[in-house]
Amino acid sequence: MLARLALLLLHCLPSFDSREERVLELLRNLELEEGSWRYHGADFVPWSKGKHEQLVPRFFLLCGTDSTEIDDDRFRDLAVDVLRIYGLRPDLNVAWSDEHGSARLDAYDPDRHLGFELRGRGDGDAFTEPSEDVRDFLDDEEVERVRATGHRLYVADMRAYRDDEDGFTPALAFLGGLIRFLNDNTDGDDVNLGGLLFEREASWRWTIPPVPGLSVAGHAFHESSTVLIAERAVTVSIPCGGLTDFGPPKEHQLPGFGPPLTALRSSTRGAPSVVATKFSVSALAEDDPRPEFLVRYRQMLDGEELVHECLSSPAFLPSDFDLARPFVLELERSPGRYWFHGGPARIGAAAPR
After folding, report:
1. What would the DSSP string read from start to end of 188-208?
2. What is the pLDDT of residues 286-339, one digit of tens each?
3. Total number of domains in the chain
4. Do 208 and 344 belong together in one domain?
5. Do 115 and 104 meet the contact criterion of CB atoms below 8 Å apart?
6. By residue range, what is the domain housing residue 140?
7. Is 203 exposed, middle or buried (0-12, 13-18, 19+ CB in 10 A)?
């Protein structure tokens, strides 16, 4: 009986994870599920439609590169998860109407008068009129009427997002805009994703120390790529001096393609940061399973060791890390080939607030 009561109490205890921790965990899981092939080279810029503004990713594509539809239902589910992280209790598919028309809101908290509307579908085409009496989106005039009556509504258009081998990067842009809106319109701690959006940045070219069982080679067709070949399980420790080892931000591939680059020259502590690489993994033999690996960051700050582990090469580091100061990157590798594409790692940090 006491054991059952203890178990019940355990399930009733509130979670003490911060908003930041929960948002970063959501993004880490999303990156593992969807992949982030374009993230290393993406910029995140405002895109305006009418009187609302959202963030969209921009990245260089060769002519003829195919892009595919994004999963708008997945976007909606992620946005609802973020609303709940911020303490909101949204109702879903809420009917709205006034004397001029009617529509349906994706999610809306009636107590906070706050929600979001994701307009259109992930096919990149213009909006089409469904046959139902209540349409599934608000047009520009309806958005303004909703807001004029005191409802706070974040609006984004699906037509601004496309998926090219990467479901993570467009979703991060969408959630980045939503989170900025929630920071401005809710109480409690803000979540600053400016580092993951590369508000400030630097580059870091790793130096791989010699390790028995590990060889380092260039890629046959890409001079800027590095291939690590692990013949057996190995751990590689790569020290970094922080700012002293960083280079300038990598220039955009086309002049005028992205926003002006802001170099990282001071502390990153106080907001999440990122070390982003473009990578792929393959087995040594064709029939072997995909290799397992672990990425670990260690840093000593104020007499305390900070440790962060992840299962992917884009590492979203919490706000207590400071990439401007020395740290150690540890790569635990099982046998396999590990390709790092496109040159040095990209360091992202939030702009000073």
Report:
1. S-----TTTTTSEEEEE---P
2. 899 999 999 999 999 999 999 999 999 899 999 999 999 999 999 999 999 998
3. 2
4. yes
5. no
6. 17-185
7. middle
Per-residue pLDDT of 24-54, as tens digits, reads 999 999 999 998 988 988 899 888 766 667 9
Residue 91 tokens read as 């109702």
- pLDDT on residue 11: 40
Q: Is 106 helix (H, G, I), strand (E, B) or coil?
A: strand
Q: Is residue 224 part of a domain?
A: yes
Say which residues have a Cβ less than 8 Å from residue 14's Cβ, sequence separation at least 6.
none
What confidence tens digit (pLDDT) does each residue in 221-267 have? 556 678 899 999 999 999 999 999 999 998 765 555 566 779 999 99
Q: Specify which residues 236 forms β-bridges with.
A: 331
What token pair was written down for 185? 């319109």
N- to C-terminal Cα separation, the chain? 52
Structural tokens at position 195: 């580092």
Q: Indicate whether 298 and 341 sit together in one domain.
A: yes
Q: Are 264 and 201 in contact (CB under 8 A)?
A: yes
